Each structure stands twice: as C-alpha cells, then as structure tokens.
User: Fold these one by one.
Assistant:
Number 1:
Amino acid sequence: MGAGLIGIGISGINAAEAEIATASSNIANDSNPNYSAESVALSTLVNGLDGAGAGVQVDAVQRSSVPFLSADINQATASQSYYASFTQALQVAQTYLEPSSGSDLSDLLQNLFNAFTNLSSSPQDPSLRNALLNAASSFASAAQQLSLNLGQTVNNVLSPLNDLVTQVNSTSAQIAALNSQIASLQASGSPAAALQDERDALENQLAALVGATADANGDVAVGGVPLVSGTQALKLIVAGSGTGVELEVSLPQGDIPIPSNELKGQIGGILAGAASVSQLRTTVDSWVVSVAQAINSQYAKGYGLDGSTGNTLFLIPGGSGPIELNPAANVNNVPAASSAAGLPGDGSNAAALAALAQLDGIDPSQPSQTASQAFSSIATDFGASIQNATQSQQEAQASLTSLTQLKQSVTGVSLNDQLANLVEYQNALEAAGRAVQVATDVVSFLLANL
C-alpha cells in the first residue's frame, strides 16, 4: 500500500511540476503576440491487475489553436499588405498626374488654345506669336516630364522586388527547417508548441509578403504553386523585367510561373501598382499624341507670315510620344492664316486651331468628350482606383484587427487565469509531496515493527 501511494504521489509531483512550468511559460510570454497559451494534457494511470487508479501521467504539452482563424488572419494580412503597396504606388503617380500646385496637362493645353484664340484676333503681333510658342513648349515639356515621372515611378515601385523575393526564400527555408524539427519532436513525444508558434508567425510573414497560404502540416503555397513542401523549401525567382516581370517557382522539372492575379501581399501589390501606373502612362501618352496630331493636322493647313505652309508644331518621335516642340517652329512660320492671300492679317487658321478645344473625339478612346474632358476622365478614373484601393485596405485592416482580437481571446494568455492556475498547481505539488511523505512514514513504521 505504501509503495503504491508513493508512486501515486510521485506521479502527482511530476504532473504538478509540468503544469507549473507551463503556467510560468505562459506568464513569461504574456506580451508575445505570436505565442499561444499552453496547457498540460494529463491522463489517469491504471493498475493493470485490478484496474485501480495508479496515479497520473503527463501525456503532452498542448497549445491553444484555432486553425480556421489563423487562415483568415493570414488572408486578411495578405489583403491589407497588398492594398497598402498598391495604394502607395498609385498615390505617388497621382501627385504627378494632378499636382497640388501648378498646372496639369489639361490646364496647359487650355493655355495653348487660349494663345491660338488671342493670335486669331491679332495675327501679326509678334508677342502673341511668341506667347503661343511658349505655351506649346510648356505643354510639350510637361507631357515629357509627366511621362518620365510615371516611368520612374514604375521603376521605383519595382525596385524592392528582388529583396522581397529574397525574404520570401529565407522565410520559406526557415519554415522547412521548423517542419523537420517539429516532426522529430512529435515523433519522440516531446512538446513542439513553441516551434509551432514560431512557424505560424513565419507563415503570417509569407502571407504579408506574397499572399501565401499554409496548411496544418506547414506546407506553403502561392496560387496553388508550392513554396514549402514538408522539409523542402522551393526557390521563388524573378523572371523578366520592368512591367513584364513575373514570379516563378524553380523546380527540377522546370520553373512554374505564378499567375499574377494569384499574387497578394506586398509583392502582389507592388506588381499590380506598377502595372496600373504603367497603364496610366500609356493612356496619358496616347492622349498627348492624339492632341498633338489633331493640332498638327490643322496647323499644317495654315500659312505663316513667311508664306510657308505644311508646318508642324509638335514632333512625335516613334509615333507614340512623348511629344516635343518642333525646333523649326518660329515666330514667322506660325500659320495663323488659312491662305497665302490672307497674309498678313488673316487669323482664321489660328481660330480653327482654337476651336479644337471644343471638338469631341480628339482622343479616340473618348469619342464624346473634348480633349480637356478626356484628360479629366483619365484623372477621375485613376483617382477612383485609389479611393477603391484605400477603402479595401481599410476594410482589410479592420478585418485583421477583429480576427486578431478574436484569436487572442482564445489563444492569448490571461494573466489572472495563469496566476490562479499557478496557485492551484503549487497546492497540488504540496499535496502530492505530503502524500509521498505520509507513504514514506507508513513504510518506515512497518519496517521498524516487523
């Protein structure tokens, strides 16, 4: 009897010590956002002879987990990170498209049309001719600078890509290593909760970086393409350049491209942002070229003070822009007149050029709008994209906050609960110790009186 009681007491001591260690660990990690509260799983030991209780045993140290919430949190993290990067890229582009100070392209185009209007009433005035050339130069220079700025914005947005891919590969390698360690610990019956918490945090980092998803075994994929498979980390690589860049996973059998629409997280936002800004640049350049072609077409019909005709105001290198002011344009060959016979007082061609301001369809993509209205539509549509992305980011952040709080309510550490548990476990330890002492005293008494 005494020997059995000693065994029961010792098993109680072992269980209480395991629970005290676990509670102490929980308390120590109270402020660690990546830590999940742990608990000790116990079971009753049974005497094989008569089925009587023979004490208690420690089966495992378990961590609190809510896999479905973790997956939702990673998805919200991926969306928030995606829209943050996407919005940032578009906001930079918007500062060039619609500067907070100074004039945008639509304003400068209107200045040019106003210069034609002024010239039509005094076609011989050299100051008005010079003002027109200055207005044309300002418009062309601004168009060049806007195109350059948007192109540079694309390059700047894409510049962190290689470093971010390196981070993805490093994180994937860490997860693969943890998968190996966790499997080894679980096979030996040792606790792996701390490593599982570490793996969860790394999986969340991959979600933030590239929108990766993970399963309960630590296998990670992006758009169905694996990044981590068991203890093997596959390499993510950057293929192509500029707006033609794409991500691929390197496999022995060949590289597998990840569909661009499957990429989320910071990298997905960067690629989508760069594509959007690049498309804006193409759209604006096309608008500028359409405007320049319309002006050149009417410009060529007129006659300058020097009798020349067939002149052009803008050059369009390669036919797709950006445009530049024709260096051959000067005060004497500005074609204000519609015919040589009307020189020098005829300003009808200048009036026809001014009338282009009210002509619909100069930009073929906007057949029912004037040039200025078409540019306003470009700016409005781009602004709406920013507004929608900002709203999506805010919604993702709100969802992430709510989900994180919900998870913390389940897996987080409650100091009050843990301190109460600690007192309970210490009492249990003392009780088990007293049981051992009593059993020892009984055995000693029996031995002394045999």
Number 2:
Amino acid sequence: MLLPSKQVVARTLGHIDNNQYLEAAQDYAMRFGWTIIPIGAGGKTPPRGVKWERYQEGARPSDEEFRRWFSRGDVAGLAVIHRDGLCVRDFDDSQAYDHWQAHYPELAKSLPAVKTARGYHVYFRCPSAMYKKFGDGELRVGSGHYTIVPPSAHASGAIYQWMIEPNGDIPIIDDPKTAGLVPASDEHNRELLSKDRLPVTPLNPPLLSESDVSDESDMSDMSDVFDVSKLGLDEASWAAIKSTLPTAAGQRNRRIFNLVMVLRRQGFQSVQQCKPIVQFWHQRALPAIRTKNFLETWTDFLNAWENYDPEKEGRLGRAIAKATALTPPASIAEFQDELLNVVCCTCHVLAIEGKGRFWLSGRALALPLGVDHRRVYDCVDVLIFEGIIKVVQEHSPKRAREFEWLLPLGDEQLLQPSLSEISAGNVGMEDVSK
C-alpha cells in the first residue's frame, strides 16, 4: 500500500473516509512498527473512550482495535506515539522550516517530513533526545507524546501530507543540535520569531526572551526599560498587558479572556480601541505561546470581546481569570491543547472554592471563552476519562452538572489576587475581602 501522500487526497474533511485512516494505521504499524491511535474530529486528542496511555509502553493496538476505532463517526485522523526513540521536530510555521532547510539542505532531503496546516513535522530517531520547547516549535519525543500523521484532517480542513515519505527505517540523528533541529541558543529562536511579526515600530518593540516573560519581578519593572507613553499606551493599558501575559505554552486562550475582562473593566467600549493593545500584547507573548500568527490572537480576542457579558461574568468569569494561577496535571498538559488546559484549570478553581465539588454547564463556560460549546463538552469528557473529575449529579434544570475533583486540591492562597492584578483592574475590592 502507498503511504497517504501518494493517494489522491482532497484538502477537505468530507473527502477523507475512515477506510483511508484504517489502511494508513495498518500500514504504519506493519511497515514501521509504529504505535498508532485515532484522533477525534475537530481537535488533536483521541476521541471519547480511547485510553491511549495504555499504549505508551508494552502493549500495541490490535487490528481488531484499529477496525473498531476507525469505524467510528467521530474520528478524523490518526497519530503515532513517540516510542522507541522516535522524534519529531515540529516547526510551527513554514518560515522556520525554510530557515532550517536552507542551512541543512542535504539533511532536509533525507529526513521524512510532513506538511501540516501551519508548518512542518520532521521525523528522525534519537534514543538520547529529550522533549524541548522552542520559540518556533518543539522537539517532540518520549512515549508521553504523540504526533498526528497523514492523512489526518486538521480542524481547518487541511490534510496532513507527506512531503518526504519514510523509506525503510527512520534515520538516526546522534545529535539533534548539530543537525540544526535544536536551536543552539535563544538568539536563534528570536531570529525565527522576528520573521513572523510586524516591522519594528513604537507599537512593536524588540521581543522579550522566555526568561523575561516568566519572571514576575522582571515583568513588574519592565516600564523602566522603555517609556510606555512613547508606545502609544497609557499606564492602565500597560498594566493590563503586564498582568495578563502568558508565561508558558497552553495559557494563551485564558490570558486573552483575562485581557478582555481587564480592558472592559477599565471602560473600553470599542474593540477597535483595543487593537494596538492586543497587537502589543501578542508581540510580548510570542516567546511563550505556540500561536505565532497575530490574526489568530486577534480573532480569539474578538470572539471573547463579543461574548463578554459583565452581567453574567460572576463566579464563572472570576474562576476563568483565577485559573491562570494553576498548572494543569501532567496527563492533561501532554495533550498540548490550550482549551483543554483552560477548562481543566477552571474546574480546579471551582473545585477549590467548592471544597472538592462544583457545578458546571458546558454552554455557560463556552460563552466567555468564545468557543463552540461542543468543544467544551469534549474537554470535560477528556477530564472524566483521564480520572481528573467525575460526575456526581446529572443535569440540573439549567443543564449544569455537579462534578467532583479527584486529584489533590491546590492551595487556596494560589487564587488570591496580587496587588498588581488589583491595580490593573483584574479583580474588584469586593473580591479581595471574600
């Protein structure tokens, strides 16, 4: 059987059928010994009920399991688990890949590569490699990670396709750094990041490094580095940016929601007034986020802005804001899904406030996040199947369900607002006294 890129594959979800996924899974397993799992439609996680963790070590899916998985109507792709030293260098955008290809042309011709919706995946083997996150992507390795493979369908409708197919064994790279697959320094990351940003202007100053945005003490003094008034920002806008910047991948969605809340509380009425602030926010957040295209951040901001309702913000809105103080459990973070992280941490906040139990409606949570409620329901299902939460009581008259948090609860002190958050308008004084 030919690998997916040799098939006539239309670039729309409707032209990929489950038989192609089944044949591809069987082919990968037979030819390369890969451990393949299904991916649910519209996302990057396995569909409901598929416990992929059992295949991280030892066990491999049987042909019967393949047939059962890929006969489901909610499957839109497949992924390989990173066992046996299998590595993937994930280039988040085409420019980063082109930069590497130009400097290592012979290697780029020999390593299997996949065109994704936004960038490229480059495959190789290195038993000693370790997972690393970069400004332009990541090095994915280890059985706690998986990578989507062709002919999977991205949520955008694009189809993952092999540009250079595997031919026999996957090549071994002894040192990913000398092969250019691991940046030698943060300066390399900053060079690549700069290619995906607007020209440097007063509203687009030089990028911060990841250490800059992860150190709160440094962030609190950043107004001393440059005169914010020259950037077209007043002190309140700069405080809104500082207090909502993400410090790690997986925080972008909830921090955008926080930014909307702060700006609305500060009295902004027109979304157009906010565009320079959001643009500046995005540039400062680039070292910490996976989404490099400003258009995606701006679209997410617009959705959150339109769905923000101060009358309905209440406890749930504050829980989303407080969720930025928490880190999702490792089993959830491994999915590398920003919305899943937001939903998980929001549930954790509600559980802390409710001493272990809480009520939640998927529709109510989807509204302030600016996403389809079905995506929130999918995230809740993942949390249930991962043993993070369980349903205690089914739907109330308002379609909420009562849940119990099954992991140790975080410290309530984590949820106390800082003075900088109060001054930025993140919380009202009435919240501090509760």
Number 3:
Amino acid sequence: MIHSHIHFRNFTEETSCWLKIPLSGNPTTGKLSVKYHKLRLIQLIAAHSNRVNLSRTILIIMSLMLVLISRNTNAQEIDFKGQVSGWVVTNPDKATHIGLRYIPDLMVGTYFGDSMIDTEISFNMYGSVQFQHNQDSILTYSDFSPYRIWLRYSASQYEVRAGLQKINFGSAMLLRALMWFDSIDPRDPLQLTDGVYGVLGRYYFLNNANIWLWVLHGNDRNRGWEIFISDKDKPEFGGRVQIPLYTGEIALTYHHRNIDVTKSPLDQILIGQSSVPENRIGLDGKWDLEVGVWFEGVFIHRDLAYAALNYQRQTNIGMDYTFNLGNGLNAITEYFTLHLSDQAFGPGEGVSMTALSLNYPVGLLDDLTVMFYYEWDNKGWYRFLSWQRTYDNWSFYLMGFWNPDQYQLYQSSIENNLYAGKGIQLLIVFNH
C-alpha cells in the first residue's frame, strides 16, 4: 500500500504487551518492564531530525550535467519522465485519507568511448488530507523533498555512483532480513522508498560474480528492521561479494556504522552513551530448482550498556512456484524470525512471521494479488487483496485490507495507523 507519511499525534503511545528485559547480562540483577509490542520494539525511533543540506550537492550535480550537455559532442541521452499518483483510503473505524503525489525524474547521460557519465535528479512532492471519523478534526500534510540525486560513471564491467540513491540487495521478497538501506513494502504497487546518501561502487566479473563497496554519510532515518538510527556525523561503510553457485548464487555482506542512541526512546537507559559502533554480517543465497528457493541470515552486534539489545539475529527462508493453472498462478511463501538477546546465540525476545503471496494474471490488462501475513507470537492475521488494471500510461488499483486493530508491519507503520482494522484503498497512477 502507498506510504502517505501522515503525521499522527502521540507517535509512541503505549503498545500491546509487557516485556521484561534484564538490565544487564545477568538475569538476576533486576528487571526493567518496557511496554511495547514485540514487533514494534524494533521500530521505536524518535522523530526525524534535520536532513543534510542538499543545496550545494544539487548545484554541483546540475552544473556538471549542464557542462556535459553543452560541451560534449559525443552521443547523449536526455530523458524526462514523471509519475502522478492519487489515492483515497477509507477505514470506517478511523478516517478517510486523500492524497496526491508527483515524482518528476530527469536523467541525462553522455558517452565517452566505452564509458558513460549519467545523472538522475528526482523529487517527491505530495500533499494529503485526513478526515477523522467521529471527531471534529482534519489533519493535513505536504512535503517537497529530494527523491534521487546522483552522478554515475560506468563502463562495461564497473560503475561508481555518488549521491542520494537507492541501494538494496538480497534474495527474499516479502519479509527481507537484508532490508538494510530501504523500507520497501511488497504490498505497495509503486515500491516507493527513501534513498541514502553515499558512494557505491560495483565491479562485475565475466562469470557473473560481482563485488559491491559503499560509503554512506549524513543519513538520519531508520531503515528496514533497524532499532536505532545512524549517527549522521560519522561515515558508514561496507561491502558485498556475490558469486554463482550451482543453479543460483550466494553472497556475503558486511556493514559498519555508528548508531545514535540519544534519539532512541531508550536514551534514559543508555545514559552516558551517544555514538555506539554496530557491525552487521549477512549471508544469502537463491537457487532455481524445481521451485525457486532462497534464504537470508543476518547477525548484528552493538556494544551497548543495555546488554539485552547487543545481539540481533534475523533469518528468512522462502520459496516460489508458478502453478500451471489458467494463465499461471504464482505463489510465494516466506518464514521470518527476529530475535534480540544479550548473547550471540543465546535465548532472547523476538518475533516470527509467515507470509504468503498469490498472484494471478486475469487477462492482458488485469492482475489479482492476495497476500497473507501471520504473526505467530500474537496470533495476528494481516490480509491484503489487490486488483490492478493497466493501460499504456494509466494504472488503476483497488485494494482491500483486514488487519489487527494494532497494525505492526513494516517501518513506516505506527500503532494507530490508518491501515489497522478493515478498509479499502483506490489508487490511480499516471506515468508520462
């Protein structure tokens, strides 16, 4: 479903259950009761702080782009496109939300022999209004922000890209353990996600192996399943090695960053700590057998005074298959776990979920998608149904949802989210 970025009041209201976590690695030293929902613990983050100033970056990239256009006599490519989307979401028990978004996108590239320099400049402009049912109040919100701003140099086997960009990888599709630098919701038809500021380099070997290296800086929003936001004043860095194996591929990924615990709801517990190192290691693989199979595993360590959050483990296993029924019924299923502990491989608190997605092309213009999520710890069902009709430039989506009253899926969701309970959404998209 489309993320409308509504500003709600009482962002961190009390949640649904009590968890007792040891104040130290020794469980006999006393307990701290923290009221939260298990899945929401990994999403408790303070309000967004100020983003890095982009005016100088935009000016430099646009200047380089104009120089390339005006002075280079080699082959050039200029492409301007955009996407307009409007939506109405109604939840009888909560509110009706109406929104409009426009994402213009300019891409310019020029060739230098076998290499190319290109740039993308894109903005996210939207406004929304929400009518509260059974209340005499209307909430409005609007925003104009950079969406993608990057400059890239590429050749046949390598590329280097710098700026505000999308970085994602991994094998899973529904509940991604390797969702490190994005927050893509698989139910969102537009697959929108904020980018990250940094430099990414990739080298592609002739045997389909590839190496990624990156350095990030100035990012202060939490992403994926993160508990803490990054310290935007300190650089992040990491890399990924992906190699072919049998009928698929396997990859090892590493990332280091410093987390800013002062902007966490747990800052009163972590007194005396501000910027804390965090290291992540990920392993994933995917193979095409009689069915498609994949796995993802993530191990995270941080050196906190609050030992119960020092280790975070995430796993995903999944498979997909297209049944020979009518036009072809595609089925995807995944099982996901996340655990927090004071020991690397010891017991801890966490969540486990199963997801199932079914997609059936009704005809040349229509698609039908059904998704189910089940949270085993709280026995909560999430149900989603989408019908899509697509023309040349137009797409129409009619979606229905039936979720628990406290909605806990994905980073952009908060407890009193409009998608809690039952409702429908109409989304209209025009691409030019």
